[in-house]
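User: Can you help me understand a structure? I only have the sequence.
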Amino acid sequence: MNFNAQEWISTVISLLAIVLTLVLFRTRSNREELSGLREKDDDQEARLTTLEERVANLPTHEQMGQMHEKINKVGNEVKQMHGEFNAWKEGANRQLDIIQNYLTGTREQ
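Assistant: Let's start by predicting it. Here is the structure, written out as tokens:
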């Protein structure tokens, strides 16, 4: 095969055009991909900022301990009230039994 200068130059220009087209296409594709990654990064940053703001508003370990103590105090007071109510209820039931026995004329033996 015998190439003349014009065919050689034409072949080189064609190959350069193909390589340039591939490089430009790949560069554009990379730009689009990078743009998509930047959008995802912005979204992740916004989500992280939201989480940081929420965490900043959470109670500290010390505050959690204080709340726990208060809840325990309320629980103990409720138990005490429950005991007092049961004692009152037993007394009231006893009084009702006495009244019923008086009204019906029966007596306890």
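Now, to help you interpret it: The chain has a mean pLDDT of 85. The two ends are 136 Å apart (CA to CA). Let me know which part you'd like to focus on.
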